[in-house]
Amino acid sequence: MQINKKNKIGFCFCFMLIVFNQFAFSQQKNRDTIQMEAILYNGDTIPSSILSNIYVYSKLTEAQKEAIAKYNRLKNAVYVTYPYARKAGVILNEINAKLIGVEENSTRRKIINSREKDLKREFTTPLTNLSIYQGKVLMKLINRETGNNCYDIIKEYKGGLTARLYQTVAFFFSSSLKQPYDPSNDDLVIERIVLEVQRLYGYPEIAKSQNL
Q1: Residues paired with residue 38 on neighbouring β-strands, in sequence order
Q2: What predicted TM-score, i.e. pTM, was given to this entire model?
Q3: Is residue 187 within 8 Å of residue 140, measured between CB atoms?
Q4: What's the domain range around 82?
């Protein structure tokens, strides 16, 4: 049987229509399928997704503001005074090492006087620029670096009378040369800030405090 030209065109058109319908149906099926992550839990497949971050803000209370201000003041004082405490610690620890086993007062005085100029040069001008609060923090840090409070240091190097004089002056400034350093309790925050400064500037530890 021969197929005329019109029948051939009609046949091709029907064939293309069937193919197009199949393709459209297939595309429709694909659009109905949504791919997503899932987890297996006790044999069940459970859809999973990551939610967007949710940020919650609130105003600080007056107590929180006060605590932050207090911490920032202490942090600033440690950052300012710790370099001075380190310099003092290096010199004082060297002097103390040389004084070990030396009994004669004249010899001890010579050892102390040999480094006294270094101490004055390092601290006379800078210390006059410190606030009273920064001075308190410095005394604690010197105790940390040397293992001795400032009263004992002055008494050793300048005599008991001079030490009592400095202690009296410190008393009028609401401070004390005999301040201890307790990194585990009272001075824990200071110790953490000191360690932060050491990491930031690459300072090696030189402290002689018994508590560290």
Answers
A1: 47
A2: 0.63
A3: yes
A4: 71-201
